[in-house]
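# nightly structure sweep
# worker-07 picked up a monomer target from the shared queue
# config: single-sequence mode, recycle default, output format = structure tokens
# input follows
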Amino acid sequence: MFSKMIKNLSTKLKDKTEGRLPMSVEKKEEPVKNVLDVFCPYCASENYVRRGTRQKKNERVQLYLCHDCQRTFTPGAVKGKHYPKAIILDAMSLYYLGYSLERSCEMVNKMNLDKSQNSKVKK
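# output follows
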């Protein structure tokens, strides 16, 4: 009886799927714009070249020269940011883990002091 039910179900499924093309998944080649794509913040042009680097308080950033408006820019998403993203994320993570603002600042400063001393020793 059980085998008869299975046979009956399989014939019903075959009848429903007859004439259909087999299901296949094809990868569509669509251009996806990268979040980190660089463009001129003044004229939104993508016509630029590298123009050296600039030393900020705690990091060195790449400078770009726009050919359309002849202005120099950095590809940072946040204007006026003085600290690298890693330091900002460390500070926010510590704060959200429950440390006080003062304690988070102390811990981040200590972590970065240790890193800078290690990098000086390696050089």
